[in-house]
């Protein structure tokens, strides 16, 4: 058994680290700034239907996270910690769900280990501390899967089955309000594939489709209707451009090879990568019991007629293949795969003999030593400002990898006689690795966030004076300035919004120069090379602040 005291200590320390780490770093461009600024503007304007970024209509994603974060800003103030609170809270909830599902399917040891694997996997921990939409989406999908499996394990037609299935439908609705149609598509697609593989249609008879779909629509549909009435251009852009065209075309310029997510997933599962592979393979093994009934469980992974291990393995495979086939790829897309793999890993670890675990731990030690060597050789030697910041961050990473490697070596020594305790020791090292690597990123803050430059110029700005963003847009600047800026000769993700409201941008540099000369007081931010060009052209301006790549100027 897992030592109870050690398990509770790890849980307590993890909880403190998890939530305290949310506010340590400044927001990083682009995503963190974007998903803080939209709710800031929503809270300021009182318009909870039409999302806007820099005052421009922004329909790429649904509003659930905007709503929650805007409400949090009103309750707790506009700061880095509050901006990340929704991602952090849902991420922590996901750890609890993984632990509960692992416990229910495979027993208490597997549940505790599933939660440990998920909480300390590098990608999950990092995304749980970034202000993006991916974590909440992943957790609601995870909740839908867990509720579905719990429903399948309940007595047929029982009230417990209905409650769990309605919970699954509600979770799918919340996932849809977080990031779109994948909230419904992934569960349905996985169930279709499972039914084909297992040649079993019985789970479909227990979905409570009529009341479930009604609940789904009650939760998810009102905003889609309201925003479409207020903005008739929304449905085509959101459902066609942001879903089908994003998947089928390369229009978003995120083209990557089919195998792109394989190394990302393995790297994101560090230090549990090899354990997760074993867990996924063993998820296909035949059940060892007749399944669970009511609220109990045999620990066999069988829930009613559903082989839970195979369902979770298929869930991971379906999502992996779906995004691998997509014409638009970003690393965080693969996040919903990790909770399922964590549950399968928890089961594998709970059954794993010490000798096998030591092979996995040896792989971690070797990978850690190789990582230290690569980090040392990659240390920059050019003594400029950027190189200094990179060198400082490399030192943080080397510390994180060194400690994790040392704890893996200690776990290897322990695991021969006490494998579960060895797994927990690795979990502690993994937590240090993820937390230290993330917190150390603040050494790059001056190049990745506008916090410092906004702090430097904040008191010098005249209220109401125009602020131009020339040929660029730093996603974090409006949030820290607590105001929007006027775009100059810049489109990028604002293209659709500017087509609807073209007057919200200055189209050319010539128009900007004319406007600037006519303004009695004005401010602008631009890249260093743009500033040099305008200075050479004789544009009247004085430098207020600058960093490694931006210059803020003022007039007079």
Commentary on this structure:
- There is one protein chain.
- It contains 24 helices and ten strands.
- Helix 4 crosses helix 15 and helix 5 runs parallel beside helix 18.
- The strands form three sheets. Strands 7-6-5-8-10-9 form a six-stranded mixed beta sheet. A two-stranded antiparallel ribbon has the order 1-2.
- By secondary structure, it is of the alpha/beta class.
- The protein is 64% helix and 6% strand.
Summarize the structure.
The protein is α/β, with parallel strands linked by helices. It has 24 helices and 10 strands. It has a 6-stranded mixed β-sheet with strand order 7-6-5-8-10-9.
Record the strand order, biggest sheet.
Answer: 7-6-5-8-10-9
Mean pLDDT over the full residue set: 93
- The computed structural class is alpha/beta
Rg calculated over all Cα atoms:
25 Å
Spatial gap, N to C terminus: 72 Å
Work out the helicity level. 55-70%
Shape: globular
Secondary structure: elements and pairs:
Blueprint: H1 4-20, H2 31-45, E1 52-53, E2 56-57, H3 64-76, H4 80-106, H5 108-120, H6 122-127, H7 134-153, H8 159-179, H9 182-198, H10 209-230, H11 234-248, H12 261-268, H13 273-282, E3 302-303, E4 306-307, H14 308-325, H15 337-351, H16 354-377, H17 385-415, H18 419-439, H19 445-448, H20 451-457, E5 467-470, H21 477-481, E6 486-488, H22 495-500, E7 505-506, H23 509-518, E8 522-527, H24 528-536, E9 542-546, E10 550-555
Parallel strand pairs: 5-6, 5-8, 6-7
Antiparallel strand pairs: 1-2, 3-4, 8-10, 9-10
Helix pairs in contact: 1-4, 1-18, 2-3, 3-4, 4-5, 4-7, 4-15, 5-15, 5-18, 7-8, 8-9, 8-10, 9-14, 13-15, 14-15, 16-17, 16-18, 17-18
